[in-house]
Amino acid sequence: MTTLVLLNQCLRLKDNPLLTAATGDVCAVVALNKATFFGQQYGIFRANLARLRQQTALITDLKQRLAQHNIGLVTLFGHTTSELQTLAQQLNARMLIAAEPTATEEYGQFRQLAQTLKITLIDCNSLLAASLRPALATFPDRFTTFRKQLEPLLRVSPPAPDFRLTNKQQWLGVTQAETLSQSWQQLAEFSEQNSVNTAALDLVKHSETASWQRLEQFIWQKQHILHYKDTRNALIGDNYASFFSAPLAVGTLSARSVWQQIEAFEQKVAANDSTYWLKFELLWREFFRWQFRKYQAAWFSAQGIKGTKHFTPPKLNQQNLQRFVQWCQGQTGVPFVDANMRLLNQTGLMSNRGRQNVASYLIHDLALDWRLGAAYFEQRLLDYDVASNWGNWAYIAGYGNSEARPFSLIKQAISYDPEASFVRQLLPELSTKGKTAHRPAAGSILAALNRNWLAELDK
Ligand SMILES: Cc1cc2nc3c(=O)[nH]c(=O)nc-3n(C[C@H](O)[C@H](O)[C@H](O)COP(=O)(O)OP(=O)(O)OC[C@H]3O[C@@H](n4cnc5c(N)ncnc54)[C@H](O)[C@@H]3O)c2cc1C
User: Fold this and answer.
1) Cα–Cα distance list, 193 to 102, 188, 190, 197, 290 (Å)
2) What is the pLDDT of residues 307-357, one digit of tens each?
3) 46 and 183 together in one domain
């Protein structure tokens, strides 16, 4: 009898408890869900080609690394539960081991699979795993309460030991895995038809090897970590923040490994406010993961975890539709918003400061349904993580773990881009120099909060 080891969200060899959890005949598998890439929500595609390319490149990379250990990786594409059920039948598998998800859709898939397979879920991507697992019923709804509860102890589960082949496991081989990966061919054909040439692009930037190189560089070699608290609010650049979010989201890097490396650096080199702050931010990620497990589907209702639950899709009249499209395209006429949105569209990433501002603009200035913004981010972000994305959006809207948080766009622009160098870099059409470049185009929508700051642009 075979055990399937589903490596979704855990595309790595280091700190991967899934790889050692099964004994006997074992089959490694990754399944990309067609609906997650080609489906829509509120009329918006759930992913774009860049994320599909990123995923296929990372899976191909993992396949090659497993092959070095003579382990095959079955790659599936389609309806995840049916694909896995078919594979289980082909291999006479009765058990499936997988990374524990955070969101309702993935839990639903495992509930369906549990009808025919014995499912074991292991939390591979949280800081508080195994015996440190918090009780959901009493899990705090405020970040500060959560942090204060955790911080005196700063206890985080240690990473799993490095993976080694043992004679307790007989892994399915490379050739057999290839023959079982027919559904993946569909994806290969699609990629070919749409000129998705992964080889030509640096899409393995978030692979396990590249992620560890980045970690080595950010923490140990260049020690950017020592200045992180001062630089983290920048809008563009290579080292103002860690850029760990994409590897953490796709699971090529584990949060526990990052945490352990920061602590090792603090012990061996130096500990300061900045090294602490990187851990502080990882606690935000952790907080949202448990919040998602606590409130599940409620996160996708119009009023998030507050108010009555209703899941009716956002309604848009013609004017609001136009405003939403302009926001997506970086054509609102507010340079600070447009520059950040164009950066997102070009690179699949945006700084945290930028994300907070464009989200606030959509919610509090354009008065659009926050879920539209969250859905567009879902489509675009290469570090898309369901809990961090929807949790942060709901937070700014006031439907999550905070009251509403409107930002004054102009004040923020002046504070974080005082010379307007960021907006001019992204918006070549801007001709004015200095902070006046932040002046919104005539007719653009700004709530009173912003209007009070416009006079500052001429000072
Ligand atoms: C509207 C909105 C949507 C967001 N969507 C996502 C998302 O889909 N995926 C995602 O990983 N982050 C998301 N974030 C959080 C944050 O913006 C990114 O994690 C961060 O910008 C990634 O860059 P970094 O890795 O260099 O972060 P750093 O500043 O170096 O932080 C280190 C790590 O801490 C975690 N972290 C930092 N800030 C937050 C935060 N506010 N919430 C949760 N975790 C955090 C991330 O894992 C990050 O990699 C969102 C924030 C907002 C305001």
Assistant:
1) 34, 9, 5, 10, 40
2) 889 999 999 999 999 999 999 999 999 999 999 999 999 999 999 999 999
3) yes
* Count of the separate structural domains present in the chain: 3
Whether residue 99 has pLDDT greater than 90: yes
Nearest CA to ligand 1 atom 18: 352
Q: Which of 372, 383, 395 to mutate to test the pocket of ligand 1 (most atoms within 8 A of CB)?
A: 383
Does residue 238 fall inside a structural domain? yes
**Residue 283 forms part of a structural domain:** yes
Same domain, yes or no, for 237 and 106?
no
Using CA atoms, how far apart are residues 215 and 243, in angstroms rounded to an integer? Answer: 9
Decide if pLDDT at 291 tops 50. Answer: yes
**What is the 3 state secondary structure string of 111-128?**
HHHCCCCEEEEECCCCCC
Question: Rounded mean pLDDT of 3-29?
Answer: 96
- Our mutation pick for probing the ligand 1 site, out of 258, 392, 393, 407, counting the most ligand atoms within 8 A of Cβ, is 392
Q: Which of 176, 193, 210 is the last residue of a domain?
A: 193
Distance CA 183, CA 77 (A): 5
Q: Which two tokens stand for residue 402?
A: 């905070």
- Tell me: do 185 and 208 sit in the same domain: no
Q: Residue 360 in contact with residue 396, Cβ under 8 Å?
A: yes
Residues 187, 65, single domain; the answer is: yes
- The answer to whether residues 422 and 236 touch, using CB atoms and an 8 Å cutoff, is yes
Nearest CA to ligand 1 atom 6: 389
Say whether both 327 and 291 belong to one domain: no
- What gap in Å lies between CA 51 and CA 205, rounded to an integer? 12
User: Which residue range is the domain that position 269 belongs to?
Assistant: 201-296
Please indicate, yes or no, whether residues 114 and 235 belong to a single structural domain of this protein: no
* Pairing mode, strands 2-6 and 24-33: parallel
DSSP bridge partners of 424? none
pLDDT for 447 equals 76
Residue 381 belongs to some domain of the structure: no
242 lines ligand 1 (CB under 6 A): yes
User: Which two three-digit tokens encode residue 195?
Assistant: 């000129």
Burial of 426 (0-12, 13-18, 19+ CB in 10 A): buried
Is 145 a member of any domain? Answer: no
- Indicate whether 138 pLDDT > 70: yes
CB 29 within 8 A of CB 5: yes
Q: Is 59:11 a contact under the CB 8 Å cutoff?
A: yes
Measured in degrees and rounded to the nearest 5, phi and psi for residue 382 equal: -80, -15
DSSP 171: E
For residue 342, the CA-to-ligand 1 centroid distance in Å is 18
Instruction: Using the atom order of ligand 1, give the atom closest to the CA of residue 351.
Output: 21
pLDDT at 201: 52
Domain boundary among 193, 209, 235: 193
22 and 58: one domain?
A: yes
